[in-house]
Amino acid sequence: MRTLFKKCIVAVITWEARLVLRKYKPKIIAITGSVGKTSTKDAIYAALRKSEHVRKSEKSFNSEVGIPLTILGAPNGWSNPFRWLVTIVDGLSLVLFTTRYPEWLVLEVGADRPGDIRSLSGWLRVQVAVITRLPELPVHVEFFDSPEAVIEEKASLINALVRGGTLILFGDDPRTRALERRLPETGGTLITFGFDEDNDVRGVEVQALRDEEGGWPVGMAATITAGESRAHLTVRGALGAHAFLPALGAAAVAGALGKDIHDVAAALAGYEPPAGRMRLLQGIKDTLVIDDTYNASPAATSAALEALALAHRPRGREVAALGDMLELGRTSVQEHKKLGALCAKTCKLLITVGFRARDIAQGALDAGMDESKIFQYEDSAVAGRELQNMLKAGDVVLCKGSQSIRMERVVEELMAEPNRAAELLVRQDAEWKKR
Questions:
Q1: Which terminus, N or C, of the chain has the lesser number of Cβ atoms within 10 Å?
Q2: What is the mean pLDDT of the chain?
Q3: In what order do the strands lie in the sheet with 287-291?
Q4: pLDDT band at 351 (very low <50, low <70, confident <90, very high)
């Protein structure tokens, strides 16, 4: 019954969304990829919002439900029929009456199952398509025949490009870069971004920023280059060179719209990375928490572990609290063990949460990590409470795991200001708190 109800809701709001697009004719920027979609979407919005009337997907509204809701400007009704009725009525009013509608929509487009993006590409008309990293083993691969099938699904977004549109690719990733061969079919423009020298928009001179007192990292600094233009940019509240990739993607989009790189840097000056994406939070006992709990994949978790080195202080330890990575199919054991081996190189203390994460612990043991430095739990809240007692001043803790493992509960136990959890952490709305 619930499945039928969802199908009916999706059919109705999609019909309304298509009518709204036909009536108001907004220009669309669509973002897909396997790593960094939400952060890139938020950075693009930050770069455009002062000069354009623009709307973005809220949170991670990137599905068959989320995209129509963004177009309609409506919240998720979850399992409440009355809320969905209100959404449907509001959608009809947009169609029947004329109102001031955004000139630009910034839409995040995800693919949980085969056909998700192909279906959307059949009715979305996109002026700018952005494709972020496509790692060798993407999340959701469990539901596809192969990693290549996931990439093919993501690439189908290019089919939605209007003639003369712009395709923006993360140029450091050979799998993403290879999609440039599809551009001639659309007759559009190609822009690449990243850190490698052959990208159109590049990040150079990347370094961590530290506070003056205790030496804690407070963000990252870099210079953005586009042709002969250079602009300095600081991203506060996040760690790792990859924290700049959303800003580089936003600069590429803004450049495609004819905006000056210095104006883009100024617009991004106040940009803060979304909750749960390598966010730096003050922890209890003079510790630092790196909150990367939004979701987890092998590539993103490896990058987060490598970034731990940037937070090192002589008197502290690097601590990793890692939960299960889901939807990896038959590669799950192998990928979790690989991360364990990396933990043995990058961490002094390892906390695992969940059944699959036991393989992270095993991988760390096999790679020579002391068994006394590895602790395994099944519940994230319990792991957080136990970890409180292990922490010492100067420690830095990375927290990461797939959504359903709820690693934000570990962060809530460790953060110095738990009263600000609703403001700073992911999945804090009432529906999530019930789960």
A1: N
A2: 92
A3: 279-283, 287-291, 396-400, 318-323, 349-353, 374-377
A4: very high
